[in-house]
Amino acid sequence: MRGYEALAEAILAATDRRYIVPGYPITELLALTGAEMVINEKTGLEYALGDSLAGRRAALIVKNVGVNACVDPLLQATAQGLVGGVLLVAGDDPDAVGSQTSQDTRIIGELAEIPVIEPSAGTAFRAVEAALQASEEFSRVAMLRVTPGFLEEEVTDSRVSRRDLRGRLSDRSFTMHGRVTASRALFRKMQGWSDASPLNTWAGEPVGTGPKPGKSRVVTVFPPPSRLAEYREVREAGLTFTKDHCRHQILPEEEGRASPQTLEQRGYYRTFCRDCPFKPVIALMQDIGMRPVCDAGCVVLAMNPPYRIGVASYGMGSSVGVAARSTGVALTGDYAFLHSGINALMDVYEKGLPLLCVILDNGCAAMTGKQPALPVERYLGWAAPHFAEVHETGRIRDLLLDAARPGVVVIRGTCPEGQEHEIVAYRDM
Question: Is residue 324 a part of any domain in this protein?
Fold first, then answer.
C-alpha cells in the first residue's frame, strides 16, 4: 500500500477522534480517515485538546501553512500539559508543488518544544503509535511530519497494536514559571527518548530522513538522536533541519533542572481586582459545580485560589473549541472571544455541539491595559445570545443551569477604575 493508505490506517487504529483542514498534500487523507472537517486549523487543534482532556486520543491533519494557525494553542499545550495523546499531522510541500510556500514545519516543532517524527516506508505504522505515546509521555502535542515523497511511496512497515499511556496536566500549584520549568524538565527527557528509539537505524553513511534514501535512517527528527552527530551526510526533504540540530545544545544548561516554583514557595497568588464586578459570577459558577475551560485574559484567574474552577487554559480564544469536546463550558472574555473564539463557536453551532459559552463582557482588554474591545453584540446576533447585567444574579443562575446548548450567555459589567489584579498572600486552601 502507499503511504497515504498506511498513514490513514495507522491513524484510524491509534486515535479516537480525527479532524482535518484539507489541502495539498494531505487532502487524500480526508476520505481515507473519515476525519471531521473543521472551520480552521486552530479550532481543530482546540477540539483535539478537548478530546485529550476527556481522555481520548485525537489527531489533527493539516498542510504546512495550516500549522501556523495552530501556534498559540500548540505552544500553550506544552506548558499546560494534556491527558490523551494529540497527534498533529503536518503535510509539508518542500517543492511547493501545490502550496504557496515550501515551509519546513519541523521548525515550529522546535519552537513548541514538541517531539517531531518523520516516518519512512519502513516505519509508517510504528511512527504513528510512537508519536502518540510520546505525546502522552511528555504531555504535549506530537508532530508527524509527512511529505509527498513518503505519501506516494510503497510502505513496507507492518501494523502495530495500540498502547495508550496517560499524560498529565501541569500541577496547578505551580506558578506559570514553574509550569514552564516542569515542561522543560520533560523536554530534557525527550533526548533520551530519541536516542533510544527503535525507529532509528544505523548502518553507515549516508543517513536518510523521511523518503530520502540512506543506509542509516533517522525518524525522530526532533530532538535528533545524539548519535547522528557522528555522521557527515544527512539527506532530508526540505531544509538541513535535523543535521543542524544534532550539532548544538538545544536547551541552556540550567533550563529544566530546578524544582518547579509553586505558589506557596513564591508566597502569593493573583486574583481578580478587589471590586471586580464579575467575582460573584465566578463564585456562582463555583457554587453550582461548573468546571469551565478558561480563556486567556482575566478569566484565567478562575484557575487560581480562591475559586480554582478552571480545568485548563490553552491560549487566546481557545476555550470554546477545547470545552466543546471536554467539559461543555467555556469561560471567556469579550476580547478573547472576538479575537478567535468566535471561529470555533461558528463550528460548534453548525455541528450542534453541547457547549455553553459564558462571555464576561467588560468592553475592554483588561489584562493588558484596558484597551477598548469591539461590541460583542455586533458580531453575535446569529447565535441568539442571552444577555444579563452582572447584578442580575438570579437570572444568571437560571441561564447557567438551563440555557440550551449550544448556547451563549453574555454577562455585562464595568471594570473598576484605577484597580489592578490583587496579589494575595498564599495559604494552602
Answer: yes
